[in-house]
Automatic annotation (TrEMBL):
Membrane topology of this protein: Multi-pass membrane protein
Domain EamA: from-to ranges: 17-145
Superkingdom: Bacteria
InterPro entries: AA-Vitamin_Transporters (IPR050638), EamA_dom (IPR000620), EmrE-like (IPR037185)
Entry keyword Transmembrane helix: yes
Source organism of this protein record: Rubellimicrobium roseum
Name of the protein this chain belongs to: DMT family transporter
Cellular compartments annotated: Membrane
Length: 299
C-alpha cells in the first residue's frame, strides 16, 4: 500500500476533537456495567430497544428546545441510516455482552480504529500515512494489553468477538454517513434522527420476537433499578456519547476519533473498581499505550 501524509489539522480542531472523543468514550464505557446489570433479567433485544427509548427521552426534548420544530428535514436517509447502522450496532454489541462480559467486550472493541480506517478507506479511498499505521498498531496493542485479565473463553469469546467487530463496523459506517448524508444539520439533529431510526428498528425486532414468544420484558422492567440502568445505558451511552462522537468526527474524522475507544477497557475497569471490583495494572498499561498511539497517529 502506498502511504502518504494524513492531512494536517489546525491545533484547535485536534484538541477539541480529541476532547470530544475522550468524553464520548468515557460516557460510552459507563454503559457496559449498566448493560451487564440489565442482562441479568432483560432479553438483549429488549434492552437494546429500551436503550434507544430512554436515549430519545433526552434527545427529542433537547432538539426541540435548542432548534425548534424541524422543517424541511431529510427524514428518510436519517431514519434508514439509524435503523441499519446504529440499530444494528446496538443489537450486536449487547448480544456480545450477553455471551461474554463488559471488560472483554470493551477490550475486543479495540478493533474500532481498524474498522473505522476500513470505512474511510472504502468510502473515501483515503490513503493511510506511516504515522497513522504506527499509531494504529500501538492503539490495537494497547487494547490487547488491557485485555490480559479479561473474561470469556472458547466459543463464547470468539462469537462475542465477531459480534463486537460487526458492531464496530456498523457504528463507524453510520457515524461517517451521518456527517455525509445529513449535511448542514446540527450534531443534535443528526443524533436524534438516527437514534429514532435505531429505536424503530430495535423496537420492531423486539415486537416481532415478543409476538412469537421469543422475548419478553422482565417483571420489574419499570422499577427504579432497571430504569436507572436504562438511563445510564440509554441517555448516557447512546445520547450523550453519540452527540460527542459525531462532534469529534466532524473535527478529526471517524478513524482518529475511534482510537479513543481503545481506552474504554481502562474506563470500564475504573468504574468497576468504584463499584467494588479489582484494579488491573494491565488495563492501566494498555490505556497508556493507546494514548501514545492516538498522539502518534495524528502527527
Amino acid at each position: 500500500m502506498t502511504v502518504t501524509s494524513t492531512p494536517s489539522l489546525p491545533a484547535p480542531d485536534r484538541l477539541g476533537g480529541n476532547l470530544l472523543a475522550a468524553g464520548s468514550t468515557l460516557v460510552w464505557a459507563a454503559g457496559f456495567p449498566a448493560a451487564e446489570g440489565l442482562l441479568a433479567t432483560w432479553d438483549p433485544v429488549a434492552a437494546a430497544a429500551g436503550r434507544f427509548a430512554m436515549g430519545l427521552l433526552l434527545l427529542v426534548p433537547l432538539w426541540l428546545l435548542t432548534e425548534g420544530v424541524p422543517k424541511g428535514f431529510r427524514w428518510a436517509p436519517g431514519l434508514i441510516l439509524g435503523a441499519v447502522g446504529f440499530g444494528g450496532a446496538a443489537v450486536t454489541l449487547i448480544w456480545a455482552l450477553a455471551v461474554t462480559d463488559p471488560v472483554t467486550v470493551a477490550v475486543i472493541a479495540s478493533a474500532s480504529p481498524l474498522c473505522a480506517a476500513v470505512v474511510e478507506w472504502a468510502l473515501e479511498r483515503r490513503r493511510l500515512s506511516g504515522s497513522f499505521l504506527l499509531g494504529l498498531g500501538a492503539s490495537v496493542l494497547g487494547g490487547v494489553i488491557a485485555t490480559a485479565e479479561g473474561g470469556g473463553s472458547g466459543g463464547n469469546l470468539l462469537f462475542g468477538a465477531a459480534l463486537t467487530v460487526a458492531s464496530c463496523l456498523l457504528y463507524s459506517w453510520a457515524s461517517h454517513e451521518a456527517v455525509r448524508r445529513l449535511p448542514g444539520q446540527s450534531v443534535i439533529a443528526q443524533t436524534t434522527v438516527t437514534a429514532m431510526g435505531g429505536g424503530l428498528a430495535t423496537g420492531a425486532l423486539f415486537a416481532a420476537m415478543a409476538l412469537t414468544g421469543r422475548a419478553s420484558l422482565p417483571p420489574d422492567a419499570f422499577g427504579a433499578r432497571d430504569l436507572g440502568l436504562l438511563a445510564v445505558y440509554g441517555m448516557g451511552a447512546i445520547a450523550v456519547t453519540q452527540i460527542l462522537f459525531i462532534g469529534a468526527v466532524r473535527r478529526i474524522g471517524v478513524a482518529l476519533s475511534s482510537f479513543h475507544f481503545n481506552i474504554a477497557p481502562f474506563y470500564v475497569m475504573l468504574i468497576l473498581v468504584a463499584l467494588g471490583g479489582e484494579w488491573s495494572w494491565a488495563q492501566a498499561l494498555g490505556a497508556a499505550v493507546v494514548a501514545v498511539g492516538v498522539v502518534v497517529a495524528q502527527r
